[in-house]
Amino acid sequence: MRLRWIDALKGIGIILVVFAHHKLPVALDTYIFSFHMPLFFFISGLLFDFWKYASSAANFVKKRFRSLIVPYFGFALLTCLFYLLLDTWYQPGITNIDFFKASPAENIHSIVYALGPLISYNPPLWFLTCLFITELLFYGFAKRYYTEPGKLIFWLTAVGVMGYLYSVYVPFRLPWNADVALTAVVFYGAGNLFRKFLEPEERKLLEKPKASLSSQP
What we know:
It contains nine helices and no strands. The protein has helices at 4-20, 26-33, 36-46, 57-90, 104-113, 126-145, 149-169, 178-194, 200-206.
């Protein structure tokens, strides 16, 4: 069985992403961007069962790398190959994407650095690397403070403030969208802490691997 209200939240988030990337009135566009991605991080945190990985950080990192970073590089390479073949065999010049105007060395740097603006051939892939860093941050704090919610909330808030200040005062981005993860971990943590308010039957359903949002543990 699945929790239908969580599936509904996922659907709403996906619809909002589609709307947000079309031409909308500025006020509406700003409103959607204010919460549609935080919603995805919230759901990801809600579906994360910390106790399943509490005993082994290495196992957690390995499985998250396999379920988020390996697909990132796989889809990045497949997308590039698709556009290059399209350009060669079907319609020369169709790959008028900024990524393909750079040198091979710059392209490799863009793929490895993984920032949304750099991977213009497939921008949504930024979420995979950002979620990976977000989960590592949360796991690090949870490993020490999961049984002390007050301290966990304090450190998540402190990191969120750091993320905000970084975005305002530091002019360069961090690889794998780690600067965004500093803020995203607040929403991820909020989702995970929200698990405590679910009914016991709902929590049992969330512990099943099929209920995972972004990756199967």
